[in-house]
Structure formats: structure tokens, C-alpha cells
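Just scan my protein:

——
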Amino acid sequence: MRSFIFFVEGIHDVNCVARVLLLRSFVEVRTINQLPDMWKSRVPRSYPFINDRLDRHIPMPAYFLKNHLCVVIVSSNGATNIIKDIDLYLSNMSKGELNQINGICAIFDADQHLAKDSFEEKFKKYNKDMVVHKKDFI
């Protein structure tokens, strides 16, 4: 099965991408048994997620299937978090899991700024230890 991950800024963006996928005849996965095996281990199984913090943001991706294609949509809970969350999500995957990913897409809002300026702003906190770098994006 081919797998693609979409990283978006927030839940409204998840819903937008989901709507496009549904219009393209994808089906949203509603139960863990419907997920391809590689994604089952990525589903959070306990709460709270970090020590005893009662976070409002639930790190639960949305999953969509069509034929032999799986699209995973991950919300970063805000524009300022998206690069850090992409890095965190990917760095927590094994090499075997990463090898099963056919593509990664990140959708950034430009908001009231030029797209180039908005993109540059996302990388202001660039860290050399991150697994993703500015050059990785088109």
C-alpha cells in the first residue's frame, strides 16, 4: 500500500484536505482495524499523552483510504508549531516506517503575508538537529 502524509496547521485545514479527498472518492477510516498495519502503531492508546498534562490538542491524525493508497493528515495545532511537529512526527518513526512513506506534503497558510515571507518565518527557529530542513520543501 502506498502512503502519504499531509501536515497541516490546524483542524480547519484537516477538514479542507479531508473534503478534497472525499470528493476524490477516498473513504475516511473509522476503526483501527481498517488501518494498514504500519499505521496501527501510530494511534495514541493512552491519555494523557505527556506525563499528567491535560492537553487540549489530541495528536490523532485523520486517515483516508482509496484502493491501495493511504493518506494520513496530521494537524500541528497552529502555524507556529508546524515545522517542529513535522520534525517530531518524522523523527519518531523508524527507518522501516519512513521507507514505507511514498510522499510527505506540508500545507502552510500565507495568511496576510507573501507566501515566501510566510515560509521564511516558519524556519526562523531552525535547528541543525532537526530531521527536516528548509531545502526539503519545494
The radius of gyration is 15 Å. Residues 29 and 63 are 5 Å apart (CA to CA). The helical segments are 11-23, 37-40, 82-91, 95-99, 115-122.
